[in-house]
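Q: Convert this sequence to structure tokens.
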Amino acid sequence: MTNTRAGSAISKGADGDAIYAAAAWATTNATGAAAKGLGALRGAAMACWAAIFVGHIIFGTYILAAYGAATVRGDMIAWNRVWPTGYVSAKPIGNVVVVTHVLLASVVAICGSLQLIPALRRRAPGFHRWNGRIYATTAIVVGLAGLAMLASGRGFVGASQNGSVAVNGVLLVICAVMAWRSARARAFADHRMWALRLFVLAAGVWFFRIGLAAWIAINDGIVAFDPTTMQGPALVVLALAEWMVPLAVVEAYFRVEAAPRAMGRSMVAALLLALALAMGYGTYRAAVGMWLPAILGH
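A:
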């Protein structure tokens, strides 16, 4: 009966969101061992999404308040208050690349979070499609601009982290292209996976900053890195963890979601809850220490 109803919904065909919803309905309403732990797993995933959503909104607002407002005022020197190479008067083309990367990152932060709201996918599929197109296109531009910045020595992090950040950027562009292609091919199960990979990779810069804020708070000061050169073992680990850990967690989620046993789902659900708490703490520390003062003009 479940397969018949899901198949009927899928056969309506024209709307990708209807296909996704039908597939989700069939999974959610499965019975027996195959469905055990799905509720806990998805609840934990929602807790992670909530932590990321709140953090992204604050971070995106900070970018607009700190860098967008300065650009509108023509106060480009303000870019160097936190980022020494944010603006270099002798390199206008490089400055355009930096501005493009940073300001469009706010679009990626906000649009990406909106893409993962189930109610928007169900009730406003047109918005989901257009927001997704804007998100994927902007993510590609931001990723390529970030790679150009690293190649020209304009990265935010120290040189010892550039290789890892570059890998993040390359993977981001690949996942954005694959998410776009799978959506156009109406392969919505594949699209969902590529889109989630894109989301966590695009959040790499945010993961780095909340991780750094949490590290400083936990150690009650700067430990294992030089804030002047932005180099040190702590930053090397953070630069690797900003994309490796989220990507590994997403892949684990995909595996246990489709697995026949509940034990893996329970373990990943517990991990997601722990990560939600960690991200909440990191967001709080970054917000009170860096973002909110800039947003509020303090």
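The chain has two domains: 1-30, 36-296.
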